[in-house]
Amino acid sequence: MNLTRRVRFQLAFLVAMSVIAASVLGFGFLDVPGTYFGVGHYRVLVDLPRAAGLYPNANVTYRGTEVGRVQDISLTDDGVRAVLSLRSNVAIPSDLQAQVHSQTAVGEQFVELVPHTDSPPHLSNGSIIASDHVQVPPDINALLTATNEGLQAIPHDNLKTAIDEGFTAVGGLGPELSRIVKGSTTLAIDARANLDALTTLIDQTKPVLDTQTDTSDAIQSWAANIDTLTSSLRQHDPALQRVLHDGPSLFDELRQLNDRLRPTLPILLTNLVNLADVGIVYQANIEQVLVLLPEGVATVQGALQANRDTKQDYKGVYLSFALNLNLPPPCNTGYLPPQQIRTPSALDYPDRPTGAMYCRVPQDSLLNVRGARNLPCETRPGKRAPTVAMCESDEQYVPLNDGYNWKGDPNATTTGQSVPQLPPPTAPPPVAIAQYDPATGSYLGPDGKRYTQTNLAAGQTDPPSLRDLMVPPGGPLP
């Protein structure tokens, strides 16, 4: 036969493509090297009590993934031995159970390897899975025979009644049953897709269940408390219903109260925060007052009981007045000089002198022993100072003198602690003329304020009484 060059080229290309397709089919799909020559596989022997429908080339799965095939099945003296060809790239723990299952309704069997742990040792070439670690499905013939015997044992009338009642129970529930079956199938598919996580969850369930066993007493106590609570709620059901009935109105009143307090409540809370800060600093003092106050009240009450239920004319506290004039003398060191002391008859209200005025004598002096110089510093235990600034600083209290001689001029001290003085006098206000109402005694001053002085009118020489001071000019009399 004389073939052209083009035909020979086409035949060669066809032969090459056939060889490539056969190689891909044999090596990739049929796994000829692994199936027939054992390349990349190792052999594991499984002892079965019976074949249970297992056949060569059946699938072998591990956690839902195909890892090999059944290479051979042979009889032994006490059962059946199956040879599993498993892929070498999958490490399978040797502590496992081999289970034979049906993959389809027509009886297509496969071997599922269910591990008990993830730790080594792993299966290797020549490993044997003993029959006590193998589970096979029940014999279908025995199952059908037992089912038939069970049906024969049921009376026909009762069986008809059971079937009728079953129809009554599930009749017309086709869509619901279909939805249940569909949901179960979806759940099974999802469970198979998450088989590793489910296996880990099952393996680690025992520690969780052990904790429940260890805390069974606490769980029983909690259940008993819940029972007591529910019993109490059942007994007080009317009161609970009343709370539920009146609760909305109560919350409405609380909401209205909150709306009314909203403008002032933040300011109050802010002030309370400042007060709380002070209370934290003086916590020890407040506790001491709360401890000593009841004892002091009890002492005073006890003193008031003197001569009670007796024939004495006087009943009550006995007081002894001993007039010790000028003993000790008053302390005047640290205050304004005598020439700057205001007279009690002055009616103006000048600004307060700058600085702190207190008795500036030594802290162990007998003068004014409870003065500001001996106040304890709350944040500095053991230190006493007249001001908070001195308490918080490293400055120590320095007296001016012993207190028996006045000393208050800041220019004459070297302590560095200023002594308050009155501000320099200001010029007197200019003389102004204001209209005076003799009937009410009121007039408008140069500062724009209204004043009242009734004794300026003719014939009004009496000083103003307490009623005149309390009632505004022209106001109604009480």
List the helices and strands and how they pair.
Layout lengths: L4 H25 L2 H5 L4 E8 L10 E4 L2 E11 L4 E8 L8 E7 L6 E7 L11 E3 L4 E2 L4 H14 L2 H15 L3 H20 L1 H9 L1 H10 L1 H20 L1 H25 L3 H17 L1 H22 L83 H5 L43 E2 L4 E3 L5 E3 L13 H5 L8
Parallel strand pairs: 1-7, 2-6, 5-8
Antiparallel strand pairs: 1-4, 2-3, 3-4, 5-6, 9-10, 10-11
Describe this structure in words.
By secondary structure, this protein is an alpha/beta fold. Helices cover 40% and strands 12% of the residues. The protein contains 13 helices and 11 strands. The chain has helices at 5-29, 32-36, 140-153, 156-170, 174-193, 195-203, 205-214, 216-235, 237-261, 265-281, 283-304, 388-392, 466-470; strands at 41-48, 59-62, 65-75, 80-87, 96-102, 109-115, 127-129, 134-135, 436-437, 442-444, 450-452. The protein has an 8-stranded mixed beta sheet with strand order 7-1-4-3-2-6-5-8, with no helix packed on it. Strand 9 (436-437) and strand 10 form a beta hairpin. The longest helix is centred in the N-terminal third of the chain and has 25 residues, at 5-29. The protein is elongated and about 155 Å long. The N and C termini lie far apart (149 Å).
